[in-house]
Design a protein that fits this description.
171 residues, two-stranded antiparallel ribbon
Length: 171
């Protein structure tokens, strides 16, 4: 059966060029569909593997942040240092994973981890000290903004690379 791609002609040209499937004949460009199909299938497999990698990386960073926070508690550091560690972990996650989802998810999970491990009553999601509500709000806001800005910078760089590829494919 036929496969229909819902992407623009210029994006197809960029992908076909990346695949090495474009043959220029005069003012026309021909695409070797066998090479192009194999390339697209490999990209899909890579996306799945990248998703697993990103999930593992997110989990690892949050676990390390939590363990570091527990160490900070044993060393007598103030809890605000743990908040900073979690915000930094969200920044790392946003930088080294793909898309907004991991950064936003890490923001939510880091807030829940902080509440679970570092606020009284411990090992519950109950909040007895209402000042922590402000801490949670600031932590969540800062984490989401940081994650969003990092993702936008990465997307701008990727867009510039696509435009460069389009220019190279067309000229």
């Amino acid at each position: 059966g036929a496969i229909i791609y819902g992407i623009s002609k210029s994006r197809i040209m960029v992908l076909a060029s990346e695949a090495g499937a474009v043959y220029k004949v005069g003012n026309s460009a021909l695409i070797n569909t066998d090479i192009f199909e194999m390339y697209l299938e490999a990209r899909i497999e890579k996306r799945v593997l990248n998703g697993l990698r990103d999930t593992g990386l997110t989990t690892m960073i949050l676990v390390i942040s939590t363990l570091l926070g527990i160490l900070f508690g044993h060393w007598g550091f103030h809890k605000i240092n743990v908040v900073v560690v979690y915000i930094f972990s969200v920044l790392l996650i946003a930088r080294f994973t793909r898309g907004y989802g991991y950064g936003i998810g890490a923001s939510i999970v880091s807030l829940l981890l902080f509440n679970w491990f570092f606020t009284e009553p411990y090992y519950t999601l109950k909040v007895d000290d209402m000042t922590y509500i402000v801490t949670f709000a600031i932590m969540m806001f800062t984490s989401i903004v940081t994650s969003t800005l990092t993702s936008k910078v990465k997307q701008a760089a990727a867009d510039a690379k696509v435009r460069e590829g389009e220019s190279n494919a067309l000229y």
